Structure formats: structure tokens, C-alpha cells
Amino acid sequence: MRILLVGASGFVGGHLAPRLVEAGHDLICAVRASSDYTPPEGATRIELDLSRQLEPDALPAVDAVLHFAQANVRFPEGARELDRVNAASVVELLDHARETGATRFVYASSASVYGFGDDPFAEEAPLAGNDFYAATKIAAEKLVGAYDELLTTAILRLVVPYGPGQAGRMVPAVANRVASGEPVTLNDGGRPRMNPLYVDDLARVVLGVLELDRSAVLNVAGDEAVSIKELAETIGRVVGREPQFENGSAAAPGDLVASTTRLHELFDLRPLVPLEEGLRRTLAAS
């Protein structure tokens, strides 16, 4: 397929792009003009700024659009950019896909749409996330769903993807603290628990989604649920250093563990990269 990968210079997009090329797809990588990103051999680069209204003439005709862009800003200062990148641009790209004859649209959402709870979230669970970021993701999911009769769509609710080259997220932040001997703050005993997924396994999911003959909403997560404390202890074993902890004062609202039953019913993914092995690869690369 001819694929437009939006957000190719990001953490997930950067790992996904070469896998798409290896799979034989004709890949167009969309990144901001300020990015020094070089696409993998066999792919082409175009410049696209999702924080501004998109010009249809600047977008190529493709068979599939993959929206993996993220806004690296905070609420409330970055509210408008969050809305533009996470939701408003989705409408523009969906309509471009429809108008130019594309057949597929894949949207990278987040398990934050569920909020927090005590039990693993299945895809049918109510979307109770109420922070601004989650609200933009929920809005985008509804927009993508509205195009189900026009395109084969996939909504991927990611849970803590991690791997080499990641920065500014939970896993590298905890790893940096453990490696440097700084204490890791534990709220409510180390909650929330989450089930992280190694980025190579995430790429395998996306390749599988491109072969589906129907629209789908999928939790994309690992099989091992861990608390912040357990994550730090696993990192400690990898780096050979006992993690230090300090008690925080915040009360955790619950856990963010997503059920992977539907994921494994659709795709033959097991065995996934075990958490300790994924962390070993991640830290060796850095």
C-alpha cells in the first residue's frame, strides 16, 4: 500500500517507519519542517504542521493514513495545539483520505480515555477519562468512528509504549532515576499499575491492523502489569543497582491496565517481548 505516516519523527513513528518499508509498503513520512528527521531508505519525506490548518493540496493521495502524531505541550498553555494535533487534524486527514480514495485510517489513541480503575479495561468499557488530553483523544475516536462506513478504520489505545530512543516519558524517567541513584517517588504504594508494551511488538500490531478486513478498536498493551515500584525494581535488576524509593503524598485514582484479550484473538503475537528483556534492550541502546 501507499501509506502516509503522520508523526514519523516521533518515538513510535520512528520505529514504525522502517518496519513498514521492510514490509514492502510505499511510505511517505510526514514531519514538521523544523524536524531533522531522515526517513528510512525507500521512504520519502514531506513537511506537515498539524498545529495549523492543513492545506489539502499539500497532502498526497494514498491508500492508508496512519495518524501517530503527538503534541509535546502541556495543558492549559498548550490546549489549542493539543486539540489541533490530537483531534482537529484527524478530521482533516479523514476527509482527505475519503476524498482521495484511501481505504484505511489508523489512529493512535491512548488508554487514558478510560480514566483509572481497579480492573483491566476491555474495549467496551465506558470512556471516563476527564483530563484535557484524554478529552481530545475521546473526541478524535468519535470522529474516526463516524467514518466507519466510508473507510476501514482502526483505533489503537496504547498503554505505555517503550523502547530505545524514548525520552520524556514514564519508563525512561524511572530508568534515569534508578541508574543515577535518585529516589523514585511512590504514591499509594506505587500505583497506578500499567501493562507496558515494547515498541517492536507495537509495530507488529500495526502491520497486522493493515491486513484487517473490518474496522476495529483495540487495546495495544503488554501482558505484564506492573506498579511503578515493580517497574523500578525490574530496571534495577537490569542495570545492577538497587532502586531507592520515597513516599509521595498523592493518592492514586486507580490503575490503568488494559485487557489484551481482543488483541490476541485477532493476532498471533505471543510471545511478546518480556518486560525485563524489553528494558534490557532499551537501556543497552541508550
Report on this structure:
With 286 residues, the protein is an alpha/beta fold. The protein has helices at 11-22, 79-99, 132-145, 170-180, 199-209, 228-239, 261-266, 275-285; strands at 2-6, 26-31, 44-47, 64-67, 104-110, 152-158, 161-162, 184-186, 197-198, 216-220, 245-247. A seven-stranded parallel β-sheet has the order 3-2-1-4-5-6-10, sandwiched between helices. Strands 7-9 form a two-stranded parallel ribbon. Helix 3 (132-145) links the parallel strand 5 and strand 6 (152-158). Helix 4 packs across helix 6 and helix 6 (228-239) packs across helix 8. It is globular, with a radius of gyration of 19 Å. The two termini are 33 Å apart. The mean pLDDT is 96.
List keywords for this structure.
two-stranded parallel sheet; seven-stranded parallel sheet; alpha/beta
- Summarize the main sheet: 7 strands, parallel
What ranges have pLDDT less than 50 throughout 5 or more consecutive residues? none
**Number of H- or I-type helical stretches:** 8
Sketch the topology as an H/E string, one letter per element.
Answer: EHEEEHEHEEHEEHEHEHH
Count of DSSP E strands?
Answer: 11
Structural class: alpha/beta
- Beta-strand residue fraction: 15-25%
Gap from first CA to last CA? 33 Å
Using only C-alpha atoms, the radius of gyration works out to 19 Å
- How helical, in percent, are the residues? 25-40%
